Amino acid sequence: MLFKQQALLRQKLFVLGSLAIGSLLYLVARVGSLDRLQPLCPIDGRFGSRGQDEIPLRALQFKRGLLHEFRKGNATKEQIRLHNLVQQLPKAIIIGVRKGGTRALLEMLNLHPAVVKASQEIHFFDNDENYAKGIEWYRKKMPFSYPHQITIEKSPAYFITEEVPERIYKMNSSIKLLIIVREPTTRAISDYTQVLEGKERKNKTYYKFEKLAIDPNTCEVNTKYKAVRTSIYTKHLERWLKYFPIEQFHIVDGDRLITEPLPELQLVEKFLNLPPRISQYNLYFNATRGFYCLRFNIVFNKCLAGSKGRIHPEVDTSVITKLRKFFHPFNQKFYQITGRTFNWP
Asked: Which end of the chain is more exposed for a tag (fewer CB within 10 A), N or C?
């Protein structure tokens, strides 16, 4: 009888010990994951004027869910006041270039806890009707953010619209401007591909790229074709330089952002005076889609829309050669002005 009681007691102790060890291991793993999700260190940089307090990184990361509710209009004025949230004019704008990777750049920068993005293209400065509504209308289109965060919007039409540089200068003469570019011929074909897809959805016919890009009368490059004009980067940049010094621009390599995004994002962090927070952990290659996707934390991942990375139609090689030869002198001048050289043919 005594022997059976001792055996039963040993069995109970073994079960309790196993449970205790299992619980301890779970807590260790849980704490580790939480530390990765919400580091305790404060952000070591300021984005406002001197003397303002810094916001801990934990609080900034909390914004993901909280600010989403405010964007949906589910917040009361009291809740907004309680969390010290504001709608700020952007401190940086991605002004272009269309089909250069503006959406990818905006989404990737939004990985940074001190960045808040305007989800939609607002088209304030390039649309006369919107611009006439005034700067307060524009500000109210911005997302809620903490005072120390940087609000960024993107509207690629800004880069090629004549009135925009002066209008942005009147709003903020010291604003930081981001331009993401790709190899000009590839960008022009990508531009054409997006328009072609839109035509096909509406069961409309469209000219082949070669017929649009080459003037049939002269057999030279058709500079009246918008996709070609947009790729003459230096012509548009020179107009911007009448209002802003080159130091207020940062050129992002859109081709490299596709294949090797982290170094490009780190350069943007430095340009915006942000502490380095985006790491390789935040970016993972999705072999099915052929692009990098975003990892905000251990539970929230995001890939760009399926419309990104459209397959380009085949283009006559002689037309590609002619376009590259046409763009070459403009590219050389662009390198000279920006101080950044690309391996464009």
From this structure: N
